Amino acid sequence: MVYFMSNINTANEINETTERLRAHVTSQNPRSDAGAVIRTNQLGYLPKAPKTAVLAGYGMFRFQLVDCASGEVLDEKSVLAREADFGSIAEYDFSNVEKPGVYYVKADPFRSYPFTISGGALDEAFTHPVSYFAAQRCGPSTTGYFTPCHCEDGIRMDDGTYRDVTGGWHDASDLRKWVGATIEGMVGLAMVYELQGDVIKPGGILEELKWGNRYFLSMQEPDGYVMAHCGGDVFRHSDSNHWTDNIKGTPDDRVIKTTPERMAAQMRFVAAQAMAARVARACGDAAYGERCVEAGARCFSWAYARMDENTTTEELGDGATAALELFRTTGERRFAGFAEDLTDRIVALQVTDYEPVRGFFRISQTNADPYKSIHGDPASIALCLMLEHLGDSADAPKWRECLRMWAMEYMLPMSRGSGFGLFPYGLYTWDAGGGRKCGGYFFRYFMGLRDRMESNGTPWWVGINAHAAATGIAAAKAAALLGEPELMAIAQRQLDWIVGANPFDESTIDLVGRNHHTVFDAHCFVPNTPRIRGAVLNGIGGDQLDMPDLLDGSYHTCEYWTPMVAHTMWLAALLKKMLI
Protein backbone atom coordinates (compact mmCIF):
# COMPACT_ATOMS: atom_id res chain seq x y z
CA MET A 1 0.00 0.00 0.00
CA VAL A 2 1.23 3.48 -0.89
CA TYR A 3 0.67 5.94 1.94
CA PHE A 4 2.08 9.11 0.36
CA MET A 5 2.61 10.28 -3.23
CA SER A 6 4.81 13.26 -4.08
CA ASN A 7 2.71 14.17 -7.15
CA ILE A 8 -0.57 14.74 -5.29
CA ASN A 9 -2.10 17.89 -6.74
CA THR A 10 -5.66 18.22 -5.50
CA ALA A 11 -7.28 18.71 -2.12
CA ASN A 12 -9.38 15.56 -2.63
CA GLU A 13 -6.28 13.47 -3.24
CA ILE A 14 -4.65 14.88 -0.09
CA ASN A 15 -7.78 14.12 1.95
CA GLU A 16 -8.00 10.56 0.62
CA THR A 17 -4.36 9.91 1.50
CA THR A 18 -4.86 11.31 4.99
CA GLU A 19 -7.88 9.06 5.55
CA ARG A 20 -5.94 6.00 4.38
CA LEU A 21 -3.16 6.87 6.86
CA ARG A 22 -5.71 7.43 9.64
CA ALA A 23 -7.33 4.04 8.98
CA HIS A 24 -3.93 2.36 8.92
CA VAL A 25 -2.83 3.88 12.24
CA THR A 26 -6.10 3.31 14.12
CA SER A 27 -6.30 -0.33 12.99
CA GLN A 28 -3.16 -1.25 14.96
CA ASN A 29 -3.31 -3.12 18.25
CA PRO A 30 -0.28 -1.88 20.21
CA ARG A 31 -0.77 -4.54 22.91
CA SER A 32 0.15 -7.30 20.47
CA ASP A 33 2.67 -5.58 18.20
CA ALA A 34 5.82 -7.32 19.48
CA GLY A 35 4.39 -10.50 20.98
CA ALA A 36 7.61 -11.04 22.96
CA VAL A 37 6.47 -14.19 24.72
CA ILE A 38 9.14 -16.68 23.63
CA ARG A 39 11.37 -17.41 26.63
CA THR A 40 15.14 -17.77 26.45
CA ASN A 41 18.08 -17.37 28.79
CA GLN A 42 18.16 -13.59 29.06
CA LEU A 43 21.97 -13.45 29.20
CA GLY A 44 22.42 -15.70 26.19
CA TYR A 45 24.35 -18.87 25.49
CA LEU A 46 27.89 -20.09 25.14
CA PRO A 47 28.62 -21.17 21.54
CA LYS A 48 28.77 -24.89 22.38
CA ALA A 49 25.93 -24.80 24.92
CA PRO A 50 22.60 -26.55 24.51
CA LYS A 51 20.07 -23.87 23.52
CA THR A 52 16.32 -24.05 24.00
CA ALA A 53 13.58 -21.47 23.54
CA VAL A 54 10.15 -22.05 25.02
CA LEU A 55 6.73 -20.87 23.86
CA ALA A 56 3.47 -21.56 25.68
CA GLY A 57 0.67 -22.41 23.26
CA TYR A 58 -1.07 -25.09 21.24
CA GLY A 59 -0.48 -26.50 17.78
CA MET A 60 2.44 -26.39 15.36
CA PHE A 61 4.89 -23.48 15.40
CA ARG A 62 7.47 -22.62 12.75
CA PHE A 63 10.47 -21.30 14.70
CA GLN A 64 13.27 -19.22 13.20
CA LEU A 65 16.54 -18.01 14.71
CA VAL A 66 17.15 -14.53 13.29
CA ASP A 67 20.35 -12.47 13.31
CA CYS A 68 19.37 -9.06 14.75
CA ALA A 69 21.83 -7.09 12.61
CA SER A 70 21.36 -8.69 9.21
CA GLY A 71 17.92 -10.27 9.43
CA GLU A 72 19.46 -13.57 8.26
CA VAL A 73 17.66 -16.72 9.37
CA LEU A 74 20.29 -19.13 10.70
CA ASP A 75 17.99 -21.95 11.74
CA GLU A 76 14.41 -22.91 11.10
CA LYS A 77 12.24 -25.82 12.19
CA SER A 78 8.65 -26.72 12.98
CA VAL A 79 7.79 -27.80 16.52
CA LEU A 80 4.54 -29.33 17.70
CA ALA A 81 3.57 -28.14 21.16
CA ARG A 82 3.04 -30.83 23.78
CA GLU A 83 0.91 -30.94 26.89
CA ALA A 84 3.22 -30.47 29.87
CA ASP A 85 2.74 -30.04 33.61
CA PHE A 86 2.81 -26.22 33.36
CA GLY A 87 0.54 -26.14 30.29
CA SER A 88 1.00 -26.75 26.57
CA ILE A 89 4.61 -25.93 25.60
CA ALA A 90 6.62 -25.84 22.37
CA GLU A 91 10.38 -26.34 22.91
CA TYR A 92 12.65 -25.13 20.12
CA ASP A 93 16.20 -26.52 20.14
CA PHE A 94 18.75 -24.45 18.23
CA SER A 95 21.90 -25.95 19.78
CA ASN A 96 23.39 -26.46 16.31
CA VAL A 97 23.98 -22.71 15.94
CA GLU A 98 27.35 -21.76 17.43
CA LYS A 99 28.13 -18.57 15.51
CA PRO A 100 28.66 -15.63 17.91
CA GLY A 101 26.19 -12.81 17.47
CA VAL A 102 23.00 -11.18 18.72
CA TYR A 103 19.82 -13.04 17.85
CA TYR A 104 16.13 -13.39 18.50
CA VAL A 105 13.78 -16.32 18.08
CA LYS A 106 10.66 -15.84 15.99
CA ALA A 107 7.50 -17.93 15.58
CA ASP A 108 4.95 -15.65 13.92
CA PRO A 109 3.30 -13.73 15.43
CA PHE A 110 5.56 -14.28 18.45
CA ARG A 111 9.21 -13.53 19.15
CA SER A 112 11.78 -13.39 21.94
CA TYR A 113 13.86 -10.53 23.27
CA PRO A 114 17.38 -10.33 21.79
CA PHE A 115 20.11 -12.46 23.35
CA THR A 116 23.74 -13.22 22.60
CA ILE A 117 25.69 -16.27 21.62
CA SER A 118 29.21 -15.57 22.84
CA GLY A 119 32.04 -16.82 25.00
CA GLY A 120 31.16 -14.26 27.66
CA ALA A 121 27.40 -14.82 27.68
CA LEU A 122 27.26 -16.22 31.22
CA ASP A 123 29.89 -14.00 32.84
CA GLU A 124 27.36 -11.76 34.58
CA ALA A 125 25.85 -14.84 36.24
CA PHE A 126 29.03 -15.39 38.26
CA THR A 127 30.92 -12.07 38.34
CA HIS A 128 28.05 -10.04 39.78
CA PRO A 129 27.16 -12.69 42.40
CA VAL A 130 30.82 -12.78 43.46
CA SER A 131 30.75 -9.00 43.95
CA TYR A 132 27.47 -9.28 45.91
CA PHE A 133 29.35 -10.52 48.98
CA ALA A 134 31.35 -7.31 49.38
CA ALA A 135 28.09 -5.37 49.62
CA GLN A 136 26.78 -7.76 52.30
CA ARG A 137 29.86 -7.47 54.53
CA CYS A 138 29.22 -7.07 58.25
CA GLY A 139 31.64 -5.45 60.70
CA PRO A 140 34.29 -2.73 60.23
CA SER A 141 34.24 -2.96 56.44
CA THR A 142 34.62 -0.29 53.78
CA THR A 143 32.45 -2.08 51.19
CA GLY A 144 29.33 -3.19 53.09
CA TYR A 145 26.26 -1.17 52.21
CA PHE A 146 25.92 0.28 55.77
CA THR A 147 29.28 -0.44 57.39
CA PRO A 148 30.81 -0.17 59.86
CA CYS A 149 28.10 -2.19 61.54
CA HIS A 150 27.69 -4.71 64.36
CA CYS A 151 31.20 -4.02 65.57
CA GLU A 152 30.32 -5.39 69.02
CA ASP A 153 29.10 -8.87 67.95
CA GLY A 154 28.59 -10.69 70.25
CA ILE A 155 27.51 -12.00 73.69
CA ARG A 156 27.65 -15.76 74.29
CA MET A 157 24.24 -17.21 75.10
CA ASP A 158 25.61 -19.89 77.42
CA ASP A 159 27.57 -17.75 79.89
CA GLY A 160 27.05 -14.12 78.89
CA THR A 161 30.73 -13.46 78.11
CA TYR A 162 31.94 -11.54 75.07
CA ARG A 163 33.38 -13.25 71.96
CA ASP A 164 34.58 -11.20 69.01
CA VAL A 165 32.60 -12.63 66.10
CA THR A 166 32.65 -9.53 63.90
CA GLY A 167 32.99 -9.87 60.16
CA GLY A 168 31.25 -12.25 57.84
CA TRP A 169 28.26 -11.40 55.71
CA HIS A 170 24.65 -10.57 56.36
CA ASP A 171 22.46 -13.34 55.04
CA ALA A 172 19.45 -12.94 52.80
CA SER A 173 17.70 -9.55 53.02
CA ASP A 174 18.36 -9.53 56.76
CA LEU A 175 21.15 -8.62 59.19
CA ARG A 176 21.41 -12.12 60.62
CA LYS A 177 24.56 -14.20 60.23
CA TRP A 178 23.32 -17.78 60.01
CA VAL A 179 26.37 -20.05 59.84
CA GLY A 180 24.44 -22.81 58.07
CA ALA A 181 23.46 -20.59 55.14
CA THR A 182 26.29 -18.09 54.82
CA ILE A 183 29.03 -20.75 54.93
CA GLU A 184 27.84 -21.76 51.47
CA GLY A 185 29.13 -18.41 50.23
CA MET A 186 32.66 -19.59 51.05
CA VAL A 187 32.17 -22.71 48.94
CA GLY A 188 30.68 -20.76 46.04
CA LEU A 189 33.47 -18.18 46.01
CA ALA A 190 36.19 -20.84 46.15
CA MET A 191 34.52 -22.82 43.36
CA VAL A 192 34.41 -19.78 41.09
CA TYR A 193 38.09 -19.17 41.80
CA GLU A 194 39.00 -22.76 40.86
CA LEU A 195 36.88 -22.68 37.71
CA GLN A 196 37.42 -19.13 36.41
CA GLY A 197 40.25 -17.60 38.41
CA ASP A 198 40.18 -14.29 40.24
CA VAL A 199 37.23 -12.49 38.67
CA ILE A 200 37.09 -9.50 41.08
CA LYS A 201 40.58 -7.97 40.96
CA PRO A 202 41.75 -5.79 42.62
CA GLY A 203 41.14 -7.20 46.08
CA GLY A 204 40.31 -10.60 44.77
CA ILE A 205 38.35 -13.60 45.89
CA LEU A 206 40.87 -14.43 48.62
CA GLU A 207 40.17 -11.09 50.32
CA GLU A 208 36.43 -11.85 50.24
CA LEU A 209 37.00 -15.36 51.59
CA LYS A 210 39.06 -13.95 54.43
CA TRP A 211 36.34 -11.45 55.32
CA GLY A 212 33.73 -14.19 55.51
CA ASN A 213 36.08 -16.51 57.34
CA ARG A 214 36.88 -13.88 59.94
CA TYR A 215 33.42 -14.68 61.28
CA PHE A 216 33.34 -18.43 60.69
CA LEU A 217 36.71 -19.12 62.33
CA SER A 218 35.69 -17.08 65.37
CA MET A 219 32.50 -19.15 65.66
CA GLN A 220 34.52 -22.37 66.08
CA GLU A 221 34.73 -23.82 69.58
CA PRO A 222 37.76 -25.65 71.09
CA ASP A 223 36.01 -29.00 70.57
CA GLY A 224 35.97 -28.31 66.83
CA TYR A 225 32.34 -27.57 66.06
CA VAL A 226 31.00 -24.23 64.89
CA MET A 227 28.24 -22.44 66.75
CA ALA A 228 24.87 -21.75 65.16
CA HIS A 229 24.76 -18.00 64.57
CA CYS A 230 25.11 -14.45 65.80
CA GLY A 231 22.27 -12.04 65.15
CA GLY A 232 19.79 -14.79 64.33
CA ASP A 233 16.73 -15.80 66.29
CA VAL A 234 17.54 -16.37 69.96
CA PHE A 235 14.25 -16.39 71.87
CA ARG A 236 11.77 -15.35 69.18
CA HIS A 237 11.67 -14.68 65.46
CA SER A 238 13.97 -11.86 64.31
CA ASP A 239 14.80 -10.71 67.84
CA SER A 240 18.41 -9.89 66.87
CA ASN A 241 17.68 -8.69 63.35
CA HIS A 242 18.58 -5.04 63.94
CA TRP A 243 21.28 -2.42 63.61
CA THR A 244 23.42 -1.59 66.64
CA ASP A 245 25.38 1.39 67.97
CA ASN A 246 28.74 -0.42 67.44
CA ILE A 247 29.60 0.08 71.13
CA LYS A 248 30.30 -3.00 73.23
CA GLY A 249 28.35 -3.29 76.47
CA THR A 250 25.20 -1.36 75.48
CA PRO A 251 21.69 -2.86 75.41
CA ASP A 252 21.61 -3.52 71.65
CA ASP A 253 24.55 -5.99 71.62
CA ARG A 254 23.67 -9.13 69.67
CA VAL A 255 23.74 -12.67 71.06
CA ILE A 256 25.73 -15.69 69.84
CA LYS A 257 23.65 -18.88 69.71
CA THR A 258 26.35 -21.17 71.11
CA THR A 259 24.73 -24.53 70.34
CA PRO A 260 26.36 -26.47 67.49
CA GLU A 261 25.06 -25.72 64.02
CA ARG A 262 23.43 -28.70 62.31
CA MET A 263 25.63 -31.48 60.96
CA ALA A 264 25.39 -30.56 57.26
CA ALA A 265 26.63 -27.05 58.05
CA GLN A 266 29.54 -28.43 60.08
CA MET A 267 30.64 -30.38 57.03
CA ARG A 268 30.20 -27.36 54.77
CA PHE A 269 32.46 -25.44 57.13
CA VAL A 270 35.07 -28.19 56.68
CA ALA A 271 34.84 -28.10 52.89
CA ALA A 272 35.01 -24.30 52.92
CA GLN A 273 38.19 -24.32 55.00
CA ALA A 274 39.90 -26.87 52.77
CA MET A 275 38.98 -24.95 49.63
CA ALA A 276 39.93 -21.56 51.10
CA ALA A 277 43.31 -23.05 51.99
CA ARG A 278 43.93 -23.92 48.34
CA VAL A 279 42.99 -20.43 47.22
CA ALA A 280 45.30 -18.94 49.87
CA ARG A 281 48.19 -21.12 48.75
CA ALA A 282 47.61 -20.19 45.12
CA CYS A 283 47.75 -16.52 46.15
CA GLY A 284 50.98 -17.00 48.13
CA ASP A 285 49.50 -17.00 51.65
CA ALA A 286 50.56 -20.45 52.90
CA ALA A 287 50.26 -19.48 56.57
CA TYR A 288 46.60 -18.59 56.22
CA GLY A 289 46.06 -21.82 54.32
CA GLU A 290 47.47 -23.84 57.20
CA ARG A 291 45.19 -22.07 59.65
CA CYS A 292 42.19 -23.03 57.50
CA VAL A 293 43.31 -26.67 57.21
CA GLU A 294 43.73 -26.97 60.97
CA ALA A 295 40.24 -25.55 61.59
CA GLY A 296 38.65 -27.79 58.98
CA ALA A 297 40.35 -30.97 60.21
CA ARG A 298 39.34 -30.24 63.80
CA CYS A 299 35.71 -29.70 62.85
CA PHE A 300 35.68 -32.84 60.70
CA SER A 301 36.92 -34.98 63.60
CA TRP A 302 34.11 -33.68 65.81
CA ALA A 303 31.42 -34.18 63.17
CA TYR A 304 32.49 -37.54 61.76
CA ALA A 305 32.50 -39.10 65.23
CA ARG A 306 28.80 -38.22 65.55
CA MET A 307 27.54 -39.71 62.29
CA ASP A 308 25.33 -42.75 62.90
CA GLU A 309 22.37 -44.60 61.41
CA ASN A 310 20.26 -41.43 61.69
CA THR A 311 22.69 -39.42 59.54
CA THR A 312 20.82 -38.12 56.52
CA THR A 313 21.73 -38.37 52.86
CA GLU A 314 22.23 -34.61 52.86
CA GLU A 315 24.71 -34.88 55.73
CA LEU A 316 26.49 -37.81 54.10
CA GLY A 317 26.84 -35.83 50.87
CA ASP A 318 28.26 -32.81 52.64
CA GLY A 319 30.48 -35.09 54.72
CA ALA A 320 31.89 -36.93 51.72
CA THR A 321 32.64 -33.61 50.01
CA ALA A 322 34.27 -32.26 53.19
CA ALA A 323 36.57 -35.27 53.55
CA LEU A 324 37.41 -35.22 49.84
CA GLU A 325 38.31 -31.52 49.94
CA LEU A 326 40.58 -32.14 52.94
CA PHE A 327 42.25 -34.94 51.01
CA ARG A 328 42.72 -32.73 47.95
CA THR A 329 44.26 -30.00 50.11
CA THR A 330 46.44 -32.08 52.43
CA GLY A 331 47.12 -35.25 50.43
CA GLU A 332 46.47 -37.26 53.62
CA ARG A 333 45.09 -40.65 52.69
CA ARG A 334 42.97 -40.92 55.84
CA PHE A 335 40.66 -38.22 54.51
CA ALA A 336 40.22 -40.15 51.26
CA GLY A 337 39.20 -43.15 53.37
CA PHE A 338 36.60 -41.10 55.22
CA ALA A 339 35.24 -39.81 51.92
CA GLU A 340 34.99 -43.34 50.52
CA ASP A 341 33.16 -44.54 53.62
CA LEU A 342 30.59 -41.76 53.49
CA THR A 343 30.07 -42.16 49.75
CA ASP A 344 29.44 -45.88 50.19
CA ARG A 345 26.80 -44.99 52.76
CA ILE A 346 25.11 -42.73 50.21
CA VAL A 347 25.07 -45.61 47.70
CA ALA A 348 23.44 -47.86 50.32
CA LEU A 349 20.53 -45.42 50.61
CA GLN A 350 19.71 -45.42 46.89
CA VAL A 351 16.36 -46.85 45.81
CA THR A 352 17.12 -49.27 42.96
CA ASP A 353 13.92 -51.31 42.59
CA TYR A 354 11.13 -48.79 42.06
CA GLU A 355 9.07 -47.95 38.96
CA PRO A 356 8.48 -45.80 36.93
CA VAL A 357 11.70 -44.12 38.07
CA ARG A 358 14.54 -45.24 40.30
CA GLY A 359 17.83 -43.92 41.53
CA PHE A 360 16.59 -41.44 44.14
CA PHE A 361 17.71 -41.74 47.77
CA ARG A 362 16.08 -42.41 51.12
CA ILE A 363 16.57 -39.85 53.88
CA SER A 364 18.53 -42.18 56.17
CA GLN A 365 18.81 -45.74 57.41
CA THR A 366 15.99 -45.04 59.84
CA ASN A 367 13.77 -42.93 57.54
CA ALA A 368 12.70 -44.41 54.20
CA ASP A 369 11.05 -41.24 52.89
CA PRO A 370 12.67 -39.77 49.74
CA TYR A 371 15.54 -37.36 50.38
CA LYS A 372 15.37 -33.76 49.18
CA SER A 373 17.16 -30.59 50.24
CA ILE A 374 16.21 -26.99 49.50
CA HIS A 375 19.88 -26.04 50.07
CA GLY A 376 20.83 -28.00 46.95
CA ASP A 377 21.77 -31.61 46.31
CA PRO A 378 24.90 -32.53 48.31
CA ALA A 379 24.63 -36.27 47.62
CA SER A 380 24.64 -36.16 43.82
CA ILE A 381 27.34 -33.49 43.72
CA ALA A 382 29.47 -35.57 46.12
CA LEU A 383 29.19 -38.62 43.83
CA CYS A 384 30.47 -36.52 40.92
CA LEU A 385 33.35 -35.05 42.92
CA MET A 386 34.38 -38.49 44.15
CA LEU A 387 34.51 -39.86 40.60
CA GLU A 388 36.48 -36.81 39.44
CA HIS A 389 39.12 -36.99 42.15
CA LEU A 390 39.08 -40.60 43.44
CA GLY A 391 38.07 -42.33 40.25
CA ASP A 392 40.77 -44.98 40.74
CA SER A 393 39.19 -46.21 43.99
CA ALA A 394 38.09 -49.83 44.12
CA ASP A 395 34.58 -48.56 44.91
CA ALA A 396 34.44 -46.18 41.94
CA PRO A 397 32.43 -48.57 39.68
CA LYS A 398 29.55 -48.72 42.16
CA TRP A 399 29.67 -44.92 42.61
CA ARG A 400 29.47 -44.56 38.84
CA GLU A 401 26.48 -46.88 38.61
CA CYS A 402 24.81 -45.01 41.45
CA LEU A 403 25.34 -41.70 39.64
CA ARG A 404 24.16 -43.19 36.33
CA MET A 405 20.93 -44.47 37.87
CA TRP A 406 20.22 -41.14 39.60
CA ALA A 407 20.97 -39.12 36.46
CA MET A 408 19.48 -41.27 33.71
CA GLU A 409 16.64 -43.08 35.45
CA TYR A 410 15.46 -40.41 37.88
CA MET A 411 16.69 -36.88 37.20
CA LEU A 412 16.48 -36.97 33.39
CA PRO A 413 12.96 -38.40 33.02
CA MET A 414 11.60 -36.24 35.84
CA SER A 415 13.02 -33.12 34.14
CA ARG A 416 10.95 -33.67 31.02
CA GLY A 417 7.57 -33.06 32.59
CA SER A 418 7.37 -29.29 33.05
CA GLY A 419 8.20 -28.23 29.50
CA PHE A 420 10.93 -25.92 30.84
CA GLY A 421 13.43 -28.65 31.74
CA LEU A 422 13.05 -27.92 35.47
CA PHE A 423 13.97 -30.83 37.73
CA PRO A 424 11.29 -31.33 40.43
CA TYR A 425 12.07 -30.57 44.06
CA GLY A 426 11.40 -34.17 45.02
CA LEU A 427 9.16 -37.11 45.81
CA TYR A 428 6.69 -37.30 48.70
CA THR A 429 4.90 -40.13 50.45
CA TRP A 430 1.86 -37.86 50.74
CA ASP A 431 0.18 -35.29 48.53
CA ALA A 432 1.95 -32.06 49.48
CA GLY A 433 -0.24 -30.16 47.02
CA GLY A 434 -0.95 -30.51 43.32
CA GLY A 435 -1.73 -34.22 43.17
CA ARG A 436 1.16 -35.00 40.80
CA LYS A 437 1.81 -38.75 40.86
CA CYS A 438 4.90 -40.84 40.19
CA GLY A 439 3.88 -44.42 40.78
CA GLY A 440 3.05 -44.74 44.46
CA TYR A 441 4.67 -41.41 45.30
CA PHE A 442 3.59 -37.82 44.81
CA PHE A 443 6.00 -35.16 43.59
CA ARG A 444 6.27 -31.40 43.41
CA TYR A 445 8.40 -29.12 41.28
CA PHE A 446 8.48 -26.65 44.16
CA MET A 447 8.93 -26.95 47.90
CA GLY A 448 5.65 -27.84 49.59
CA LEU A 449 3.90 -25.01 51.37
CA ARG A 450 4.06 -26.95 54.63
CA ASP A 451 7.26 -28.95 54.14
CA ARG A 452 8.93 -27.33 57.13
CA MET A 453 7.51 -25.75 60.24
CA GLU A 454 9.15 -23.03 62.30
CA SER A 455 9.51 -23.45 66.05
CA ASN A 456 6.50 -21.15 66.48
CA GLY A 457 4.37 -23.50 64.37
CA THR A 458 4.24 -21.44 61.18
CA PRO A 459 5.06 -23.07 57.82
CA TRP A 460 8.27 -22.10 56.04
CA TRP A 461 9.04 -22.56 52.36
CA VAL A 462 11.21 -20.86 49.74
CA GLY A 463 11.72 -20.85 45.99
CA ILE A 464 13.60 -23.40 43.95
CA ASN A 465 16.76 -21.61 42.79
CA ALA A 466 19.37 -23.35 44.99
CA HIS A 467 17.92 -26.76 44.23
CA ALA A 468 17.75 -26.05 40.49
CA ALA A 469 21.31 -24.73 40.35
CA ALA A 470 22.70 -27.64 42.39
CA THR A 471 20.92 -30.10 40.10
CA GLY A 472 22.51 -28.30 37.18
CA ILE A 473 25.96 -28.69 38.74
CA ALA A 474 25.50 -32.42 39.23
CA ALA A 475 23.94 -32.87 35.77
CA ALA A 476 26.81 -31.04 34.02
CA LYS A 477 29.42 -33.09 35.84
CA ALA A 478 27.50 -36.32 35.22
CA ALA A 479 27.28 -35.48 31.50
CA ALA A 480 31.08 -35.53 31.30
CA LEU A 481 31.61 -38.48 33.64
CA LEU A 482 29.01 -40.69 31.97
CA GLY A 483 29.37 -39.45 28.39
CA GLU A 484 25.68 -38.46 28.23
CA PRO A 485 25.26 -35.10 26.43
CA GLU A 486 21.52 -35.02 27.16
CA LEU A 487 22.43 -34.35 30.78
CA MET A 488 24.29 -31.19 29.77
CA ALA A 489 21.08 -29.87 28.24
CA ILE A 490 19.32 -30.38 31.58
CA ALA A 491 22.16 -28.58 33.37
CA GLN A 492 21.85 -25.63 31.00
CA ARG A 493 18.09 -25.45 31.42
CA GLN A 494 18.35 -25.15 35.21
CA LEU A 495 20.35 -21.94 34.70
CA ASP A 496 18.02 -20.86 31.91
CA TRP A 497 15.11 -21.13 34.36
CA ILE A 498 16.87 -18.92 36.89
CA VAL A 499 17.76 -16.32 34.25
CA GLY A 500 14.44 -15.89 32.48
CA ALA A 501 13.40 -19.04 30.61
CA ASN A 502 10.44 -19.44 32.93
CA PRO A 503 6.73 -18.63 32.71
CA PHE A 504 7.32 -15.06 33.98
CA ASP A 505 10.21 -14.10 31.66
CA GLU A 506 11.90 -12.95 34.86
CA SER A 507 15.56 -13.09 35.82
CA THR A 508 15.86 -14.00 39.49
CA ILE A 509 19.46 -12.75 39.62
CA ASP A 510 18.72 -9.25 40.82
CA LEU A 511 19.57 -6.40 38.43
CA VAL A 512 21.02 -8.91 35.95
CA GLY A 513 18.75 -9.49 32.99
CA ARG A 514 15.25 -7.96 33.16
CA ASN A 515 11.78 -8.04 34.73
CA HIS A 516 12.77 -8.06 38.39
CA HIS A 517 10.13 -8.32 41.09
CA THR A 518 10.07 -6.27 44.28
CA VAL A 519 12.70 -7.56 46.69
CA PHE A 520 11.55 -8.67 50.15
CA ASP A 521 11.68 -6.06 52.91
CA ALA A 522 11.61 -7.55 56.42
CA HIS A 523 10.35 -4.26 57.92
CA CYS A 524 12.52 -5.05 60.95
CA PHE A 525 15.16 -2.36 60.57
CA VAL A 526 15.95 0.93 58.84
CA PRO A 527 17.73 1.29 56.52
CA ASN A 528 16.60 -1.94 54.93
CA THR A 529 18.75 -4.08 52.66
CA PRO A 530 19.07 -2.31 49.28
CA ARG A 531 18.89 -3.95 45.91
CA ILE A 532 22.27 -5.53 45.22
CA ARG A 533 23.35 -6.45 41.71
CA GLY A 534 24.12 -10.16 41.54
CA ALA A 535 22.01 -11.19 44.52
CA VAL A 536 20.05 -14.33 43.71
CA LEU A 537 16.48 -14.44 44.94
CA ASN A 538 14.96 -17.55 46.49
CA GLY A 539 13.25 -17.86 43.15
CA ILE A 540 9.99 -19.03 41.71
CA GLY A 541 7.93 -21.20 44.04
CA GLY A 542 4.72 -23.12 43.59
CA ASP A 543 1.18 -22.57 44.78
CA GLN A 544 -0.90 -25.25 46.46
CA LEU A 545 -1.50 -26.84 43.04
CA ASP A 546 2.27 -26.82 42.34
CA MET A 547 1.95 -24.27 39.55
CA PRO A 548 4.70 -21.61 39.23
CA ASP A 549 4.13 -18.64 41.52
CA LEU A 550 6.30 -15.55 42.03
CA LEU A 551 4.81 -13.61 44.92
CA ASP A 552 5.90 -10.01 44.51
CA GLY A 553 7.91 -8.91 47.55
CA SER A 554 7.43 -12.14 49.49
CA TYR A 555 10.32 -13.69 51.44
CA HIS A 556 9.32 -17.06 49.99
CA THR A 557 10.37 -16.05 46.48
CA CYS A 558 11.88 -12.54 46.48
CA GLU A 559 14.34 -12.59 49.38
CA TYR A 560 18.08 -12.93 48.84
CA TRP A 561 19.59 -16.12 50.28
CA THR A 562 23.22 -17.25 50.26
CA PRO A 563 22.62 -20.87 49.10
CA MET A 564 20.91 -19.50 45.98
CA VAL A 565 23.80 -17.11 45.26
CA ALA A 566 26.46 -19.75 45.86
CA HIS A 567 24.99 -22.49 43.69
CA THR A 568 23.96 -20.19 40.83
CA MET A 569 27.41 -18.65 40.41
CA TRP A 570 29.03 -22.08 40.74
CA LEU A 571 26.78 -23.47 37.98
CA ALA A 572 27.43 -20.53 35.63
CA ALA A 573 31.20 -20.73 36.17
CA LEU A 574 31.11 -24.51 35.65
CA LEU A 575 29.15 -24.29 32.40
CA LYS A 576 31.61 -21.74 31.03
CA LYS A 577 34.52 -23.97 32.02
CA MET A 578 32.97 -27.02 30.35
CA LEU A 579 31.42 -25.45 27.26
CA ILE A 580 33.77 -22.66 26.18
Walk me through what this model shows:
- With 580 residues, the protein is α+β, with helices and mostly antiparallel strands.
- Helix content is 38%, strand content 14%.
- The chain has helices at 11-26, 124-135, 179-196, 204-218, 263-282, 286-304, 313-330, 333-348, 378-389, 396-415, 465-482, 485-498, 555-558, 562-579, and strands spanning 52-56, 60-67, 73-80, 82-84, 87-93, 101-107, 110-111, 115-117, 155-156, 177-178, 227-230, 255-260, 362-364, 367-370, 426-428, 437-438, 441-444, 452-453, 459-460, 541-542, 548-549.
- Strands 2, 3, 6, 7 and 8 form a five-stranded antiparallel sheet that branches.
- Strand 13 and strand 14 form a beta hairpin.
- The chain starts with 10 loop residues before the first helix and ends with a helix.
Q: Name the beta content range.
A: 5-15%
Q: Judging from the principal axes of the Cα atoms, what is the shape?
A: globular
Biggest β-sheet strands, sense, barrel? 5 strands, antiparallel
Specify the helix fraction band: 25-40%
The pLDDT mean sits at 95
- Structure classification: alpha+beta
Distance between the termini: 48 Å
Give the uncertain stretches in residue-range form. 1-6
Question: Using DSSP, what is the number of strands?
Answer: 21
Indicate the topology.
Elements: H1 11-26, E1 52-56, E2 60-67, E3 73-80, E4 82-84, E5 87-93, E6 101-107, E7 110-111, E8 115-117, H2 124-135, E9 155-156, E10 177-178, H3 179-196, H4 204-218, E11 227-230, E12 255-260, H5 263-282, H6 286-304, H7 313-330, H8 333-348, E13 362-364, E14 367-370, H9 378-389, H10 396-415, E15 426-428, E16 437-438, E17 441-444, E18 452-453, E19 459-460, H11 465-482, H12 485-498, E20 541-542, E21 548-549, H13 555-558, H14 562-579
Parallel strand pairs: 9-12
Antiparallel strand pairs: 1-5, 2-3, 2-6, 4-5, 6-7, 6-8, 10-11, 11-12, 13-14, 15-17, 16-17, 18-19, 20-21
